[in-house]
Amino acid sequence: MTGNMLLQYGVFILIVTIAVKPLGGYMAKVLQGQPTVFDGPLRPLERLLYRITGVNPEREMDWKEYASSFVLFGLCGTLLLYVILRLQWLLPWFYPAYQNTSLAPDLAMNTAVSFATTTTWQAYGGETTMSYFSQLVGLTVQNFLAGASGLAVGVAFIRGFARQRTVNLGNFWVDMVRSLLWVLLPLSIIGALALVWQGVPMNFHAYTQATMLDGGKQTIAQGPVAALEIIKNLGTNGGGFFNVNGAHPYENPTPLSNFIEMLAIAVLPAAFTNTFGRMIGRPKQGWVLYVVMTVLFAAGLLLCGWTEQSGNAFLSREAHFQPATFTAVPGGNMEGKEVRFGITQSTLTAVVTSNGATGSTNSMHDSYTPLGGTVPLVNMLLGEIIYGGLGTGLYSIVLIALIGLLLAGLMVGRTPEYLGKKIRPPEAKMLTLYTLATPLGILPLAAIAVVTKAGLSGLTVNTGVHGFTGIVYAYASSMANNGQAFASLNANSAFYNLTTAAAMMIGRFGLAIPALALAGLFASQIRRPATVGAVATDSFTFGVLLVSTALIVCGLSFFPALTLGPLLEHFLAR
Asked: Is 2 among the domain residues?
C-alpha cells in the first residue's frame, strides 16, 4: 500500500470523526424538539404540514402504532412511485427518442420497492429508461422520504433506552418531518451546490447530440442530476441518475466530488451514535459504538485497498502481466476502475458504500480481486453495523451488542442487561427474530437461484464460482437495502425482480419491526442501576465483545457461502 493511499484513508476517517460531535448534537436537538438555527423558516412550514395532513404532533404512539405507520408509509410510497413509473410516458419531460427502454410491470414494481426501502437496486439504465419527471418527482422524492422515515425509526429505537415506564416511542410523523426538514433538506441544498460547483449538471435540457472525432454521433444525457446525486448519498439510497452511477463524469466528475459524496454517506450515520449517547444521557456509550464501527471500517478499508493494490492474480499468471511496470498507476488491479479515481478512491468508495447501505459505486466491483470483492460483500452480510443507513445503522449495531450481552450473560449465569434495561425472554425472542431475518432473506433465495433455470439464466457473462458470488451478492445487497451489484448478473428478469424485491422488503421491515418491538419492551422497563456482575458497556472489553459477536454471527450464517464463492475463487487464482 502507498503512503498516498493511507493518507487519503486517514483524512477521510479524521473528517468523519470531527463531524460526529457537532452533527450528533444537532440531530439530538432536532429530534427532541429543542431550538435550532433553522427554526425561523422551518417551524411555520412544519405546522402547515401537520395542518394539511391532520397530524396531531402532541400525540405519541406505542411501538405497534409506530411500526404500522412506518410500514404503511413505505407501502404508500411504493404504490405512488409504481404509478409514476408506469405512466411516465404521459408525464412531463419524457423523451421517447431517448427513454427507449420499456418499464415492464415487474421492473417497475422492483424499482418502486427498491427506492421506497432505500435499496435503490437498479436493474435498468437510468438515462435510457427514466424521464426527468420520474427521476426528480419519483426517485428523488422517495430518496428524501425513505431516508427520513429510517431516521425516524432510529430515534424511536433510542427512546426505548432513554425512557422508562411508558409504552410511547414518540410520533412517527413528527420524527419523519423533522428529519426531513431540519436534517436532510438543508444538507442536500448545501451538498447539491457543492456538486454543481464541481461540474454536476442541474438542468432540464434535452439530451445533447455530440459529433465525435471519427465523425460518429454520441447522445449525452442531461437533467437534474445534482438534486438526485446528493440525497442518494445523504439518505443512504445510492440509485444513480446514470447507468454507471458514480463512475459517470456527470454524477461524479472529480476526485473532490467523490470525496464529498463519500462524506455525505458516512457522516450522518456515524454522528447518530453521538445522538444516541446524548439522548440516553451517556455520551460515552455513543463513542464506544462509533469506535467499534470505525475499527471495522478501517479493517475492511485496509484489506480491500491492499488486495486491489497487489494486482490481479489471474492476469499475472495467465498473461505474465507485471503491474509494477505501469508508472502512472504504481501497481494494482485497475480493471473496472476510473483512471481519475484510481485504486485509492475506488476502494474507499466500495467500502463506504457497502457499509453505509448506499449502493452508489464508482467502479465495477465485479472486476475486483476475489478478496477485494469479499470486503463489500462481508460488509453487507454484517447487516449495516458499520455506520449503516440512517437510523438503521444505529439499531443494527445495538442489536448485535444485545446479542453479545445475552450470550455473555448465559455463559456466566446472570441476567444480561444494557443501559439499565434487562434482556428478558420477550426481548430475547425479538433478538432471535432479528438474528434469523438476514440469513433467511439471503440464503434460501440464493439457493433457489442457483438450482433453477430462471436463476441461472441471469449468469450471461460469468458462471461457476464467480457467478455464484454474483448471485449471493445480489441478495445480500437487497437484504441490506444497499443496491450495489456484481453487474455481470443480468437481474432484469421476472425471477430476479420478484425475488430481490422480497429480500428488500424483509431487509427494510423484517428488521425494523423487531427493533421497534424491542424498543417498546425496553421503554416499559424501569432503568435499574448497573449491578456488580454486569458487563461495563463503555469499556474496551465491551468493544471486543461487540466485534466478536458481529463476526461470529456473520460467520455462522454465511461462511459456507463465502467459502463456495469468493474464498474459493481466491485460492483458484493462486
From this structure: no
